[in-house]
Design a protein that fits this description.
The complex is a heterodimer of chains A (509) and B (279). With 509 residues, chain A is mainly alpha-helical. Chain A is built from 20 helices and 5 strands. Chain B folds into 2 domains: 60 residues; 215 residues, Orthogonal Bundle (MetI-like fold), CATH 1.10.3720.10. The chains are: A mainly alpha (509), B mainly alpha (279). Chains A and B meet through helix 6, helix 9, helix 10, helix 11 and helix 12 of A and helix 1, helix 3, helix 4, helix 5 and helix 7 of B.
Chain lengths: 509, 279
């Protein structure tokens, strides 16, 4: 343990304590504001004549707004967005926003200042522990565990103190003086706990790094290699943390909270949104459509295998074919959707013209609920037939000729050779194509968006399209998040299945 | 007798093979051909039953008219920016992280690798809502930065690069080290040039994916001057719903860049499929 390490540790501990104090300060200030919020500004232009039903706690009902103006009803506006918090006033149907109220906190003395001595004492203990632990740099695991326990205890103690203060506010009814009967609600402590947890993790990691460096001071090559490797990995790791790992946790968080773009408050609502989608026939319709739609995968696989069997010989020009069959795979999906919509056009489409030529009735492929989903399945099959065929061709050519020869000498017919030798040998390829294909089928959005917009009568409504509409047309991000959780679980289980089947087989590159 | 059979059976099989190949090729190409033919027809020429198979007088003006009816030049610029950023981001991060995982023994490697494998499992399509809200919180909705942000890194590419580096011999890198090259020089001057085929594969798939992306651009880049080609053609479809030659002309235009890239780089494409084309 060198002096440099000790300096670095002191700096890290200081930053750690500062970050913790910052978060605690912010939260305490919000509790304080809630206790002292007085100034209310009513911006409502609530329409008259509606049935007054307070929509609570998602927003304020029309009667609430009227009552606020009449200073009759004490209201608590929830929110965490700064010193001025707004809440939408909704109509009787809880749908249209017809006004808003704003509440402002007034500056004043600390109401919950009692927290600070406790928090500071804990932090002082933490820093002391941090420095003391450095002496036992050899036992890194113990040291990190000690840190985590110490800091975790501190966080729990601070949050417990805060929540006691919040409960105190609730017990006194948060009743402001009569000037305006509006008050801010105390902040949600879950968020503060989350940030404190992140700060704790950062502190533990910093400490771990310093101790690790001290322990490896006599191995400069290893230190250099580790630093270099982490440097190479840092950009992708940062991106994955922000855009992949954090969103997973965030997704689950949104799905159990109310998320209204207009309200600054996002209260915990448990499984409300899951119950909502469970009771929504359109959600089940979309899920069922998605499962039916996925059936194009095995169907296409069958066709692709047949094509591969016919083409499983050294034909001249097969390379050109290989390029051609991949065209749909690389081509712009919007362009494909457009041309198929044109091909399937009821009155002037090529397909119906062909049907008419052989005196068959015209079909309104995309306009009829019975044919719209099958039509999309045909387009998807067309798009993936070539890809699947090429994968099958590779699989067929990997089957040892000697195996087929042996079967032939044993008197197996062509059908028996196919059923007893070729099919079992192709099993890994088939399983791979089936599972990746089904996973991929749940990603399909463009065809639905362009060709049918989920219609007619929701016949082609799939989960991704439902999520898109729910979030970006109806602005219900919370409900869309609940749907996404379902989609995520479906796809995760399929992926897990796929990984289990490929385990043990050599990775091919 | 048996000799003749032995010769004729393969010939029959070869003929059916060619027939099947031809049929398959026709099925695959016909929609594209129909797209091109319709794009050359007159607006009202297509409204006939049965439809004409060839344009009476090929009308190239459809392309200029369709592509100027909406500002497609802007859309192509946006798509190129999106594709270029995605390619550069994915290739750079995949090469760096893949190389680190393949070549370096460092503290924290095993848990980190597990985290990367885990991200490979997470379906991005289910993360639309939180990703959008995060980009929104960063103030990047309706900006180029928000448009390109989420696909700058692909775990798939990182694993492809790692596998490829593992398959390369280390001799050249060790020789360079003996000659006094720094680790960074070993990476950029020795390892990267050797990994060019894998880099091309990552770049190609990044380009195709970026060019075909519709859903994310649709939700994050709503203002018209940030539209990408796919979203542009989609809104064109809504505006000129009845003018099929124009729509087909726009569709053909959207196809051309990605088709050119694909034809130039098919080899890299097939290599990527061998690794698992579906991501």
């Amino acid at each position: 343990m060198t002096a440099a390490h000790r300096r670095a540790a002191a700096l890290a501990a200081l930053l750690w304590a500062a970050a913790t104090a910052g978060v605690a300060w912010r939260t305490v200030r919000k509790v304080d504001q809630a206790a002292r919020s007085r100034e209310a500004l009513v911006l409502s232009h609530a329409a008259q004549g509606r049935v007054p039903t307070p929509a609570w706690p998602g927003g304020l009902g029309a009667r609430d707004a009227a009552a606020v103006r009449a200073e009759e009803l004490p209201l608590v506006v929830r929110g965490t967005a700064g010193t001025v918090v707004t809440a939408p006033v909704k109509d009787a149907d809880d749908w249209n926003v017809i006004g808003a109220v704003a509440v402002q906190a007034r500056a004043g003395e600390w109401a919950v200042a009692v927290l600070f001595p406790v928090a500071l004492a804990l932090l002082a203990a933490l820093i002391t522990g941090f420095m003391a632990g450095l002496r036992h740099a050899t036992r890194r695991r113990t040291v990190v565990g000690l840190d985590a326990a110490l800091y975790g205890g501190a966080v729990v103690a601070v949050v417990a103190q805060l929540s006691r203060a919040v409960d105190g506010l609730a017990a006194t009814g948060v009743v402001p003086p009569a000037r305006a009967r509006l008050a801010l609600a105390p902040p949600s402590l879950g968020f503060a706990a989350l940030v404190l947890g992140l700060v704790a993790a950062a502190g533990v990691l910093a400490r771990w790094a310093i101790v690790w460096h001290a322990a490896n001071a006599d191995r400069p090559a290893r230190v250099r290699e580790t630093l270099g490797a982490w440097g190479l990995i840092a950009p992708s790791l940062a991106h994955l943390l922000v855009f992949t790992i954090a969103p997973v946790g965030f997704l689950f968080w949104i799905s159990v909270h109310d998320w209204d773009l207009l309200a600054s408050d996002r209260p915990f609502v448990g499984l409300k949104h899951f119950r909502a989608i469970g009771a929504d026939p359109l959600f089940w319709r979309a899920l069922r459509n998605g499962l039916v739609y996925a059936l194009y995968v095995p169907a296409t696989m069958g066709a692709a295998l047949a094509a591969a069997l016919v083409l499983d010989q050294p034909l001249r020009g097969i390379k050109v074919l290989r390029v051609v069959v991949f065209l749909p795979y690389v081509a712009s999906t919007v362009a494909i959707a457009l041309v198929w919509q044109w091909l399937l056009h009821r009155d002037f489409g090529l397909l119906n013209a062909m049907l008419a030529a052989v005196h068959l009735p015209r079909v309104d492929w995309l306009g009829n609920p019975a044919t719209a989903l099958p039509a999309l399945m045909v387009v998807s099959a067309w798009g993936q037939l070539g890809y699947m065929m090429v994968v099958y061709l590779a699989g067929l050519q990997a089957i040892p000729v000697s195996l087929l020869e042996a079967a032939r000498l044993d008197g197996a017919s062509a059908w028996q050779r196919f059923r007893l030798v070729v099919l079992p040998m192709l099993r890994p390829v088939s399983v791979y194509l089936l599972l990746t294909g089904i996973i991929w089928s749940f990603h399909g959005f463009t065809l639905v968006y362009i060709m049918t917009e989920g219609g007619p009568a929701h016949a082609t409504d799939v989960l991704v399209y439902r999520i898109y509409q729910t979030a970006w047309e109806f602005r219900r991000f919370d409900v869309a998040a609940a749907m996404s959780v379902v989609l995520c679980l479906v796809l995760l289980s399929l992926t897990a299945l796929q990984w289990r089947t490929v385990k043990g087989e050599p990775a091919d590159v | 007798m048996s000799e003749r059979r032995a010769r004729t059976v393969p010939r029959v099989r070869r003929l059916t093979g060619y027939a099947a190949a031809l049929l398959l090729a026709l099925v695959m190409v016909a929609p594209f051909l129909w797209m091109l033919l319709t794009a050359l027809m007159d607006e009202f020429e297509v409204y006939q039953a049965p439809p004409p198979l060839l344009p009476a007088a090929p009308r190239l003006a459809n392309f200029t008219e369709a592509l100027t009816a909406l500002p497609f030049a802007v859309y192509f610029r946006n798509s190129l920016i999106l594709a270029a950023c995605t390619v550069v981001g994915q290739v750079a991060t995949a090469a760096m992280a893949g190389y680190a995982f393949a070549r370096h023994r460092f503290a924290g490697r095993t848990p980190l690798f597990a985290v990367y494998l885990g991200t490979l499992m997470i379906p991005g399509i289910a993360l639309l809502v939180p990703r959008f809200l995060i980009v929104d919180a960063m103030g990047l909705v309706d900006t180029i930065a928000g448009l390109v942000s989420v696909d700058l890194v692909a775990a798939w590419g990182i694993f492809l690069m790692r596998q490829y580096f593992l398959s390369l011999p280390r001799d050249m890198e060790d020789a360079a080290r003996l000659d006094g090259a720094s680790e960074w020089q070993v990476f950029t001057r020795v390892a990267l040039p050797l990994a060019r085929p894998a880099l091309a594969t990552v770049a190609l798939f990044a380009f195709i994916d970026a060019w075909k992306a519709l859903l994310w651009p649709l939700i994050v880049a709503r203002s018209p001057d940030l539209r990408v080609v796919e979203a542009g053609v989609a809104s064109f479809h809504g505006m000129y719903y009845a003018n099929w030659p124009w729509q087909m002309a726009a569709a053909v235009a959207a196809l051309v860049p990605v088709l050119i890239v694909f034809l130039v780089a098919q080899k890299a494409f097939l290599r990527g499929l061998a690794f698992g084309g579906f991501k």
